[in-house]
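Hi P.,

Sorry for the delay on this. The queue was packed all week, but I finally got your sequence through. Input first:
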Amino acid sequence: MLKKTLILFLFAFLASCTKYKLSDEDLKCVPYNGNEKLYFKSSYGDVDSFILDKPDRYFSEVYSHKLIDFDNFEIVDFYFTRGKPDSSFYSPLVRLQAADDDIPFLTIYLIAKDAKLEPEYSIGLDEYKKQQTIKLSTAYGSFSDVLIFYPDATSIDYEKQPEYITKVYWSKSKGLLRFDKKDCYWELSDIKIK
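Then the structure:
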């Protein structure tokens, strides 16, 4: 009897676990393969580079407030190092995450030379796909599929920090194109495949 009860409990537990996956269409929102080296140049002439690593794809288990229910959300992180490949700096640049409301979201984490996006910027992919695009010309080329993201600084007074990023320009076809600070901007100047 105890064995049957345990088996039923285990079956009920496993049946209550839900896996939320990203679709192929969702994955297209991040145009990186993980073998790119992005070069940026500031309006002052400084240079910085981001070396993208292979995407890290995994499921994260999250307790869902039900009695015995755990949900698994698929996450794809695009990590990068700054400067040299052997740099000790290693951080996600972009994350795609499935969600239980069927609206996955994209999060941009950006730490560059004397610049930091804080707090990180998140957008639901439904809004991402509907948002108005603009045209932007950079040293790398002209793009007509550009979104502008403004970080939310209402919770903490980030604007007073000297490295505060005020705007992020994201191309649906190329990814990160430009980011602005109060006193300068950094613009994509080249992309090389590693």
